[in-house]
Amino acid sequence: MAPFIVLIGSFLFFRLIGLLGFAYLDGWEPSLRIAVVLMFLFAASAHWGKRRPDLIKMVPPAFPKPGLIVTITGILEIIGAIGLLIPITSSLAAAGLALLLIAMFPANIYAARKGSSMGGKPITSLFPRTIIQIIFITAVILLI
Question: Is the model's pTM score more than 0.90?
């Protein structure tokens, strides 16, 4: 839920800054781009922080080396976020991040069905998690 709040809150903040006269942010696309970057950097930070063990537990048991998977997905989130800021790579980065979100969704399903927790709090149930994931994918696809 926190990455969703980062996405929506930062988008609204940057859009407001654009409406107040900051030319670079005068449009929905630059505001969304920076919001998506912040969301992915925020989400990636959990891959190495105190929430790392919770993320590792979210990986379905069918996948080997869950710690490695969490590390790799965190690195890909950072690379994708940086790629969104570079004009020549932004479309490729957006497509890659959309695919990454789709690839990581089974972990969300597994965690929701298992009743996992994140930071000691129960994670969002499957239906809202699915809606949020669709919003994330849509936001990234809009940047292609």
Answer: yes
